[in-house]
């Protein structure tokens, strides 16, 4: 009986997942929403995709909830304006929740990203120079560089402040795990890929980012986007992102299922830049941030044989292919 059920699984998958996707896609194609090249050569590309979907592995991918809480008296959350990109618009909220599938980060790379967005062009090549220039200018402004030890007072496991679960302390309290150095970025990673795959920051050979270090073996798991854990690392300087293929300088801090961040207070105001899946924000006088698991998605992972046969250039952007309404809504 079990053999019979196993033999039926591929057919069940095609009927319940692939066929509805194809039918929905066909509807959009007939309505004129035709991804480039999908109908060429007697629908060769569509045939190829359906075959890959049927051969793919079904796995889980975690979706995370990032809630940024602002000071009730003088907190602000700013984002690049839609009409005037050089202006930061006040979002008029006391707290905001984001959904994240890839990464959440705090610090200098987010400040650079915010300034890059203000001068973004329509040319990908030009944008590389714009981002490089934004990073260079922001690093020259040494008085304005973001450093984690000046921003994040404490980091805890769990979704609330609990001294028994303290991971990182920047206040210098004796006996607590102290932040090593004063890195420019603190990153929460759901996937081991950053900057378009140019950096793989969670590596077993990387040093630990707090002293004393966590218990032996607590940082040894490989990264898995469906295991209900986020990996936390610090980056000494943002140049480590570009140089990661040559040398891994990220420092490992923790692997856990939820986090609570507590920020420093300052009479002159605290300005903290953060990023959620490529969207940059500027928080003025933030109070805390809670990061916790929201839900799990079932996704298709490309078969190893397909990876060997095809280069990345053979795969078109799925964002251009998936019809409206087929995406995973939150």
UniProtKB/TrEMBL annotation:
Residues of the Diacylglycerol kinase accessory domain: 99-280
UniProt entry keywords in alphabetical sequence: ATP-binding, Kinase, Nucleotide-binding, Signal, Transferase
GO BP of this protein: phospholipase C-activating G protein-coupled receptor signaling pathway
DNA damage as UniProt keyword: no
One of the record's GO molecular function terms: ATP-dependent diacylglycerol kinase activity
InterPro entries documented for this protein: DGK, Diacylglycerol_kin_accessory, NAD/diacylglycerol_kinase_sf
Superkingdom: Eukaryota
Signal peptide (residue range): 1-24
Entry GO terms, CC: membrane
Pfam family name, one: DAGK_acc
Name used for this protein in its record: Diacylglycerol kinase accessory domain-containing protein
Lineage, top ranks: Eukaryota, Sar, Alveolata, Dinophyceae, Suessiales
């Amino acid at each position: 009986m079990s053999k019979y059920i196993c033999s039926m699984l591929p057919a069940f998958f095609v009927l319940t997942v692939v066929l509805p996707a194809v039918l929905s896609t066909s509807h959009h194609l007939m309505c004129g929403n035709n991804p480039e090249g999908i109908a060429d050569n007697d629908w060769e590309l569509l045939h190829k995709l359906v075959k890959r979907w049927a051969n793919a592995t079904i796995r889980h991918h975690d979706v995370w909830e990032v809630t940024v809480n602002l000071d009730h008296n003088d907190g602000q959350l700013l984002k690049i304006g839609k009409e005037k990109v050089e202006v930061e618009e006040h979002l008029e909220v006391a707290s905001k929740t984001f959904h994240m599938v890839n990464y959440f980060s705090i610090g200098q790379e987010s400040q650079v990203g915010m300034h890059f967005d203000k001068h973004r062009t329509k040319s990908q090549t030009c944008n590389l120079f714009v981002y490089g220039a934004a990073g260079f200018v922001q690093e020259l402004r040494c008085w304005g560089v973001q450093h984690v030890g000046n921003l994040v007072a404490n980091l805890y496991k769990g979704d609330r402040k609990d001294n028994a679960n303290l991971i990182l302390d920047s206040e210098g309290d004796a006996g607590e795990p102290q932040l090593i150095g004063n890195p420019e970025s603190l990153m929460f990673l759901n996937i081991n890929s950053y900057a378009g795959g140019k950096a793989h920051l969670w590596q077993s050979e990387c040093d630990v980012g707090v002293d004393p270090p966590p218990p032996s073996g607590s940082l040894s798991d490989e990264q898995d986007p469906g295991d209900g854990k986020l990996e936390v690392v610090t980056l000494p300087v943002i140049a480590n992102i570009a140089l990661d293929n040559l040398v891994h300088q990220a420092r490992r801090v923790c692997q856990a299922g939820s986090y609570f961040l507590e920020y420093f207070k300052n009479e002159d105001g605290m300005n903290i830049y953060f990023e959620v899946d490529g969207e940059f924000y500027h928080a003025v006088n933030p109070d805390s941030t809670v990061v916790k698991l929201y839900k799990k998605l079932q996704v298709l992972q490309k078969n190893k044989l397909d990876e060997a046969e095809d280069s990345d250039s053979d795969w078109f952007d799925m964002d251009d292919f998936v019809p409206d309404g087929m995406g995973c809504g939150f």
